[in-house]
Amino acid sequence: MRELNPRRPARCGAAASVLLIAACGRSDVLVATGGGGGDAGGDADGLGEYDGGWPITGDADTDEDPPECDLDSHSSDCDGDGVPDADDPFPTDTYRPGRAREDVIYVHSAFTLSSLAPESAPIVETIADFSFPDDAFSQVTDIAIDRFGVLYALGSDVLHACDPSTAQCWALASVPSNSLAFLPLGTLDNDDDTLVTLAGSAWTRIDLRGPEVAVTVIGEIEAPYSSSGDITTTSDDLTVFSSPSATGVDLVLALDPATGTVFGVIGLASGLSNVWGMASVRGALWLFDQVGNIATMDSISGEVVVVGFGLDGFWGAASHPDLR
Ligand SMILES: [Ca+2]
Ligand SMILES: [Ca+2]
Known about the structure:
This protein is an all-beta fold. The protein has strands at 18-21, 105-108, 112-116, 125-129, 140-145, 151-155, 158-162, 169-174, 179-183, 194-199, 202-209, 212-220, 231-233, 239-243, 251-255, 262-268, 275-281, 284-289, 293-297, 304-309, 316-319. The protein folds into 2 domains: 24-90, no CATH class; 97-323, Neuraminidase (6 Propeller), CATH 2.120.10. Strands 1-12-11-10-9 form a 5-stranded antiparallel beta sheet, with no helix packed on it. 51% of the residues are buried. The structure holds calcium ion (CA) (2 copies). The site of one calcium ion has 8 residues, from loops.
């Protein structure tokens, strides 16, 4: 498990068992249209806040949605960017957050976002270094992509929305690190896919409503298992996570997403070192380790086959759910 700045204080309120967090440092529905940004909140926390250049179209006290937007709708899209209002962290900003491609696996190191085509001899192609134009710098510990292609990134216990084509990221809320994934529609919510994180042993769901973020701890993963670095859903609908083990070799385990109860071991990540990235692609489970190994694991036999290498090493991975 990656421990980054462990003494760093939570910046937007610590996560409790149930905690509603507005967009980090912002009012509940502080929505901007057009470009701009900057920390104009006067508190010098480095977090993105309303900079005076955009109209505020929501109201923190009345929880009003921006005009023409419906933050409970997965079909209405008031800014026309292809991301429905409920799933759009910037529901009145046509230019943010951008959408991920459906045909590649996104991978990253602490500092750089890359992609690779899921082929027999994959080549890692750099997209860009992560940048935080409105916010404090973060090392990125994991990424996840929702069914509309919105890419989220965890960095220094802060959830960001990022543009997959530029790797620009904007802080949304404090969220415990360090594994991040979307569970498919119907797994925890019949109306939406659900963002989850495994922070140490805390199995946690993150509900998103436009720019609003609510964090709920579901349960604890039983010892000796804990987060190594990622979560994904296999083609046969198992929720799996990577965990350190006593042997020093990571395990891939299945768990009950409704409770966090561990079902059992899928396989041992033999030959790999710290599996911090996983992605499910066309029926195969892809593993990415800290050293840079790219491998596939058979979700039935647990057999691991190394298929490639990335020079930067991997801190996380995700692919569009339609690629599963
Ligand atoms: Ca939208
Ligand atoms: Ca938008």
